[in-house]
Design brief:
The protein is mainly alpha-helical. The chain has helices spanning about 10-30, 40-45, 55-60, 65-75, 100-125, 125-135, and strands at about 80-85, 90-95.
Length: about 150
Amino acid sequence: MTADTAPNMPQLLSEAKRWFDDALLAGMTAAGEQPVTAAQAAVFATLDPDGTSISELARRMGVTRQTTHQAVHSLIGLGLLEQTPDPSSARSRIVRTTPEGARAHERAQVMLARIEAVLAERIGPRAGLLRDILTTPWGEPPLLSTLS
């Protein structure tokens, strides 16, 4: 991107997410929590309360099963997640939080609310507008067949 080219919307959204990720990581580290990567945090963000399969986590995160598997197993190593048999399928396993993982996730949610409050202090009522826009259903992604 050149200095005279405005960033596109996906770039702006990515930068905004990185701002939250960086603030969360710094805050959790300062609070004495085990640091996690953005990929590991994404696992928590997409995990169902009763557990989720690695395949479903990968689909929700938009990454490969291998990437998800690596993130999940590193979190298992940290004692934040566990894999258990899936009660609905004898051949499957689900990933869910351990009590320590649930505690850390709850702390992260509190931290994210505080980070959002800081954003609101910095940009004012537009923070509420931004939340409204991002929570409005956008519909299915468009399939554009031409560039004109």
